[in-house]
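Can't paste images in this forum, so I'm doing it all in text. The chain is below; anyone willing to post the predicted structure tokens underneath?
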Amino acid sequence: MYTVGLQSAADAFLLSSLKAQVALALLVLFILLCFGFGSQKDGAVDGAPVFLPGSHLLAITPFFRRRFEFLNDGFRKTGQTLFQFNMLRETVIVVSGESARKSFFANKHFDLTEGFKMLSGAIPVVKGVTSNLQTKRIAQIHKRLSSVQRNEHLSGLIAPILEDCRRVMETWGPSGTFDPFEKIYELLFQITVRSLSCEELADDPVQVARLKELYDTLDSGTTPATVLLPWLPGPSMLKKLWATKKIYDIVVRAIDERERSGTSKPDTLQMLLDEKDERLVIVGFILGLLVAGARATGTTASWLITYLGDHESKDEVTAEVEQLLANYVSPNVTHSLSQQLSSIPLEAWESETPVLDSLIRETLRIAQPHTAMRRNLGPDMTIDGKTIPSGAYVVYPFSDVHLNPDLYPDPWRFDPSREEATVPFGYVGWGGGEPHCLGQRLARLELKLVTSMMLLGFRYSLIDKKGEQLDTPPQPNWNDILLCRPEQGSCYLKHEKSVLSL
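Text version of the structure:
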């Protein structure tokens, strides 16, 4: 799975001198430049989308660094709703508009798994575990994710998630200031480890922090070179290899510890073991879904709580959660806030929180910079009169619908009262077509629990780096394709505990 040579190379690089690292980086850049020119293919298919101007690899590297700008510039430069470019030997076609969106999400020959490979650079890549998976193993992972979201399992997660919230929020102190895109994201990472792995990891703050650090290394090490030339042992790739190996070791040790102990615990790992899944499926489930869940839900939670800082919806949603407490918790109970919230049943969280639902829906619209990726497995297809050849990658940016002023007037304004656009696939916050986000039921619950703890546990407002109150929240950065964070230092939360016991 990992050759001794590659692992040794990774360790050696990380211990090497700065001069050696720079020399290797320059070598990588030289190879990129040499391979990058002449990437536009000859003999274009009749009726094919227009090519994006610029034929060398450096011209398309912004696809990985500033994707939002890159795609918008592509539509502007070509003057078309569809355009294409080459990524080394691969054809990538970008589509937009209502009819293209409908064709993209409805086409059964456009494969999500194959398309995702082009973006899998920030996921731990372990052959047979998180990449090059057999169809059967992919189906098993999807099936297990559905099992995690059954009523009994989700109900059992409510109290542990709220306890994680209490413990992490207590570390913030009775009052202070913090960056929500750091602290809220850290909290959601903890909760994701709780929900999708095992107690051995979730109950160990040091291990959780270590896992987050390693996944952050994967994020920072995802470069055009590591995605386009994964076989090239450049500096970033070696760092990613090293981080992946460490993550793999942590997860495998936790599994081994559970199996040796012979104990049974009410967590996701136990469910996977009881189903007698292959070891590769268990490891792949945890490695892949930990980061996917933490990124998506962590981003949404950070923005949701930020938007509510001084928004008019804050009082309305607070009243909604207080009504849940009035309905399900005895007024004589003196338990902590987390214990009281854990008394609210799953059914109530899911069916009696329309304000929370609207807040989540609007946050996903405005602060999830997704670009859907598919691969046409054949035959050749047609979208808006343009040929999509078999084997081509097809890309649809969610900004085409979610930030479209014709569908959502003043699209950057946070407005939970908005109605979803009534055009086909007019809202794709949880994805479009098949499959939708398979973990959305768990994600919704996590978002509602964290938001409720924040609203009832603290008084807070938005301030800038000078400590002055912000009149409006910052704008999401759609070029940050993983976390959508605003400019660093542009927004902080000033908080003060409003209850005696979280």
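Residues 34 and 430 are 40 Å apart (CA to CA). The chain has a mean pLDDT of 87.
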